[in-house]
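Explain this fold:

***
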Amino acid sequence: MGSNHSHKTPVFDENADVNFDHFQILRAIGKGSFGKVCIVQKRDTKKMYAMKYMNKQKCIERDEVRNVFRELQIMQGLEHPFLVNLWYSFQDEEDMFMVVDLLLGGDLRYHLQQNVHFKEEAVKLYICELAMALDYLQTYNIIHRDIKPDNILLDEHGHVHITDFNVATIVGDSEKATSMAGTKPYMAPEVFQSYLEGGPGYSYPVDWWSLGITAYELLRGWRPYDIHSNTAVEEILLMFRAEKVHCSSTWSKGMV
């Protein structure tokens, strides 16, 4: 069984590999495309975490092995109060496991689906916290590429945390990303331009665009552009050029 832990301050004996047996499984809290997510407690420290199971065979069948290992590689070097931090990773014959911060406030998509009306002051707080996280990622040359309500979790105190680095990428100081990755309704124009027109590529600002789309959706309950997963790239670029985003008259000047 292989194991790994980050450079962060360890909460276990450094001389012993951390593995599945070091945790008590309490209950399942979700199911993803590759496996389930459980609340676990580390037996020695009694600290609570979320443990993500990723079935190796399913990863291979869906050609996601590279993305999974890239996510692990990126997350192992990160620690920030507004990220979902990775603390341990290990594997057995069937599954890979990621032990991360336990956040039980739900993701912002869930709250939107429950018709929660987000107050402007709350959204401003979210933007500030997410901006700090994005700024931190940029210092490590990381573009998240999938900022959206689904990938923003709330903790019990109402603070936000970015999760899911599955399509994140690392770029050098003068490099640009070129592949089309992310979720269409939240992707920036330059991502589509690079894909369709062979443009110069894109960099960190695409995450800020996604943050803007997310903030708009939290405030209004819908996105500024009527873009869906099956909307053609040509149609999306035309939409960006032709349509004007309408801000609510109830928003404060500072919000706009």
Notes: The radius of gyration is 19 Å. Strands lie at 3-5, 23-31, 36-42, 48-55, 86-91, 95-100, 142-143, 152-154, 160-162, 169-170. The CA atoms of residues 59 and 65 lie 5 Å apart.
